[in-house]
Design goal:
Layout: E1 3-8, H1 12-23, E2 28-34, H2 37-47, E3 51-54, H3 63-73, E4 78-83, H4 88-97, E5 101-104, H5 109-120, E6 125-126, H6 128-137, H7 144-153, H8 159-166, H9 170-184, H10 189-199
Parallel strand pairs: 1-2, 1-3, 3-4, 4-5, 5-6
């Protein structure tokens, strides 16, 4: 039987190219494509794919949230990340979210097909260079909740908006952001967000 694939990438051209390349493999079948995380979640329920091949960048939602959502709604679905966001933090965050594969977009089509088969067989795969960098870089200094609050504030929204998004009192949201800037040794939350994004902590 073919391995059924759900392909997710925010860039239509990349999505179609990846789908075409993998679809040429005799044992791989692309059953659905999505350029947004919301559509990907709906298509996963509709088509019951075996593997979701996704980028971490989607216009409507962070790819990490999509991985967690897919893992909750379809525990048997396995996720392979194919992305240009390859910092050590991104690797760790994707694996913690439940991804079983992590590959840079520089991978070859044949290499990616082999990785899909490996993950489908139940074996985790992480690009060796990225894995070594992730191990040597150390973990994020932010707690999961701090990372969540910072990501909700990363667009420069006022405290009231951040608090509403995070379901916190304004004072509590302000305290979180103050603690984050102190931890990261930066002047403000904008610098904190830039630093965290660079390291893949959010």
């Amino acid at each position: 039987m073919s391995i059924r694939l759900l392909m997710v990438d925010g860039e239509r051209l990349v999505l179609e190219a990846l789908s075409a390349m993998l679809g040429r493999e005799p044992d791989l079948e692309v059953v659905a494509e999505a350029t947004t995380a919301g559509r990907a979640a709906r298509l996963a329920r509709r088509f019951s794919p075996d593997i979701c091949v996704l980028d971490l960048n989607t216009p409507d939602r962070d790819g990490l949230r999509l991985i967690r959502e897919l893992r909750r709604s379809r525990p048997s679905l396995r996720c392979v990340v194919v992305t240009s966001r390859t910092s050590p933090g991104h690797v760790r965050s994707a694996l913690m979210a439940g991804a079983l594969g992590f590959v840079p977009k520089t991978a070859s089509a044949l290499g990616l097909a082999a990785i899909v088969r490996t993950v489908h067989a139940g074996t985790r795969y992480v690009d060796a260079t990225l894995a070594a960098e992730a191990i040597s870089a150390g973990a994020s200094p932010l707690t999961p909740r701090e990372a969540d609050v910072l990501s909700l504030a990363a667009d420069g929204a006022p405290i009231a908006t951040v608090a509403r998004r995070a379901v916190l009192a304004q004072g509590t949201a302000r305290n979180y952001l103050s603690r984050i800037t102190t931890k990261l040794k930066v002047a403000n939350r904008h610098q904190a967000a830039q630093l965290a994004r660079r390291h893949g902590w959010i």
